[in-house]
Amino acid sequence: MADPPPEESRSAAVNPLRHQPQGIIGLILVLAVVLVIAYFASHGWPWAEQSQSSAPAAPSQTSFGVVDPSDGALDAALSEPVEDSVYPEVGDPGVDALHYLLRLEWQPGPRTLTGTAVITLRSTVAAESFQLDLIPQLEVAEVRFDGQPVVYAHEGKDLTVAADLAANSRHRVEISYAGTPRGVEAPTRRSDIGTLGWHTTESGETWTMQEPFGAYSWYPVNDQPADKAFYDFELRVPAPMVGVANGELISRRQAAGLTTTRWHLAEPASSYLVTTAFGAFELETAVSDSGVPLSWWTPAADRGAADLAQLPELLAWAEAKLGPYPFDTLGLVLVDSQSAMETQTMMTLGNNPFIRSPEIVLHELIHQWYGNQVGPRDWRDVWMNEGMTMYLQGVWEAEQQGITVAARLRDWARVEPGQRRQSGPPGDYDPERFGDANVYYGPALMWHELSRVIGQPAFDELVRAWPAAHDSGALSGSADREDYFAWIEQTTGRELSEFFEVWIMGKRSPLLG
Known about the structure:
Low-confidence stretches: 7-53
Strand order of the largest sheet: 7-6-10-4-3-14-17-16
Number of strands: 25
Helix content: 10-25%
Distance between the termini: 30 Å
Largest sheet: 8 strands, mixed
Structural class: alpha+beta
Number of helices: 9
Shape: globular
């Protein structure tokens, strides 16, 4: 989240026999070429470059977005869900969602969302039921569990499904629902955030932002950050509107007055990092110097798109600091918001000059490493996302201004003690003041101080190594402060418990002595 305010491609098939040689020799040559092509097509071309992304193998699909619960590729989405210590009323630690297929149709006239969510999940415990989050305004028509209709109850936001669950068993749940979605109350006093989750504009366009929760305002979900899952989306909306979501745009077609897009997110994501927007968007594309496909989805004829041309340069800066971009694609969608959100691979930005500024775009971009590649297991540790992201934003700002990082951070140091008094320590903040400045500036200053303690070269290596240690096939993509502190101490060979205690949990700012 930003710091608090002051069409589809086609390829032509090539006919290998179009210019074939004449006679027997020619036929032999053609057959030889065909055999060589067939061999390397199945074994790999020796000169082919390897993709920089280390995305896990995609689960096999019987039809678009439908996966087999027993598919081993889903293991990349295995999580250890917890009951959140700050917002325990959201999420169910008995559920480990592995994959969501969201089929959504938005009708802007009547403001109606019709959806089917096909959820592949693992039960973490033996139980007779499980619970998902979904607002009551979205009425459930049917729930099927492993293909069979089952009994369910939908009271408030709690959708409880009766099912015989063995510990560590995997299942497919299909939920059909419809209604007029609306946002949910936000536990914050920030002026740039009203409600969380689904938003509808006066013209019937929509967008979503949902940190720390609120995905349940538009689909049934285990809405807690420790539970990461794969996602596929099939979005329908009357033309000329189009649906935008996370990941790679697989297809886009128009029929019977509806635009249908399909999207695939190749890396597991937390629910707060999922996005969907319906609007009259125009698409521009590019490729970064490092080979990442880039896209901009902007309102038709909107001049704000020009500000986004900075994305390749900002990505190059972030990769120089943090290593290769950790996902397959990177995009931006401009919406009618006053804030910004680091939604995974498709960042959601408010369409105003402040939010389109390079500082804010860079902030959300850095979150693709700090927050998305590795994120908090529990909302008490949101500072782990925001502190390092804010620090690196400060480093960039100092470079742009031609000053030292220390000089840039002095302004933050002047206000940090007051932020801590008002909203609490970064690691023990007031739950009604989520996303206040205290989880941004204090931790950013802490990281700067640590760079002085261990030396800048060692610190720079630390900054790059933490997200990389949580890439696919390594550690889980979620962590808590205990994991983080222990890793830093092991990596640096220093005992830093008192240092972290005063910065993260101290009621009095360390800057005051």
